[in-house]
Design goal:
Elements lengths: L2 H19 L2 E8 L1 H4 L8 E8 L14 E3 L6 E7 H9 L3 H7 L4 E4 L1 H14 L2 H19 L4 E3 L4 H16 L7 H4 L6 H15 L6 E3 L2 H17 L12 H16 L1
Parallel strand pairs: 2-4
Antiparallel strand pairs: 1-2, 1-5, 3-4, 6-7
Length: about 260
């Protein structure tokens, strides 16, 4: 399926989702390995979206379901968050939300929504909590997948990416780019880059990366950076989070703009 066919299929499906749930989708992107840039030829399309209900839906006492999820059909995986849930996650500086907002593969964007979210991101991004998120992810994947003599080589990407994302945040105090190749510019060791790019080409070309001997150079780099990150984050100066008023104002702006459109 080529890019045009994928976009046409996704666009049609998003319209059906809007009709089924009586919502308006404000933003839809690709998440996961295809957005990261280390997909295999048979990787799923992980379509993630943010949507808004009519204004009266939010005037309720009891909480209502604030996610839309579908089982995977063929190679497409769809799920999304309601606008209010999105604002709640922004308040918590949820790293997944920041990844969605920086995805290089856009299926749909409401410009006003994106402008508001960009401003809110500057206020609510927490470098410290984000580093801890990626550090926890990297540590967990490293312990689970890369400790034996024989490892699944593709799992290196699921450790390297969060390690490099955490490094980016420490150095730049901003959300990391989603694309793996942009994170790779932080690695100065040319031999190490050759090893990573060889592995990347094999994965993207469709070669089955099954159980293989661990790559010592990558293991050493990962262990070294994990130790560095664990020490560095302790001394990292946390930002003071603003109150909820800015988020509430942003929520109302988007909600009222949608009602008028």
């Amino acid at each position: 399926m080529n890019t045009y066919e994928v976009r046409r299929c996704v666009s049609a499906r998003l319209k059906i989702i809007e009709e089924e749930h009586q919502v308006k989708i404000l933003y839809a992107v690709e998440s996961g390995s295809r957005a990261w840039g280390f997909e295999s030829q048979d990787s799923d399309y992980d379509v993630r979206f943010i949507y808004v209900h009519p204004k009266n839906w939010y005037l309720n006492i009891l909480p209502k379901r604030d996610v839309i999820e579908y089982p995977i059909v063929d190679i497409f995986d769809y799920s999304g968050w309601d606008l209010r849930k999105t604002m709640f996650l922004m308040n918590k500086s949820n790293p997944v939300l920041f990844e969605w907002l920086k995805s290089p593969i856009l299926y749909y964007r409401n410009n006003f929504f994106c402008e508001v979210m960009e401003e809110l991101s500057k206020e609510y991004f927490s470098p410290v909590s984000s580093v801890y998120h990626y550090l926890h992810m990297a540590n967990g994947n490293f312990r689970q997948y890369l400790q034996d003599a024989k490892v699944k080589s593709k799992k290196y990407f699921y450790v390297l990416r969060p390690v490099l994302a955490a490094m980016w945040i420490l150095d730049n105090k901003e959300p990391p780019p989603m694309e793996f190749n942009k994170l790779l510019i932080q690695i100065q060791d040319k031999n190490l880059l050759v090893k990573i790019n060889e592995l990347l080409e094999r994965k993207k070309s469709g070669v089955e990366l099954g159980l293989e001997s661990g790559i010592n150079e990558l293991n050493f780099f990962i262990e070294e950076k994990l130790k560095y990150l664990e020490k560095a984050v302790v001394d990292f100066d946390p930002r003071k989070k603003p109150g909820p008023e800015i988020l509430e104002a942003g929520f109302l702006k988007i909600l009222e703009r949608d009602e008028d459109s």
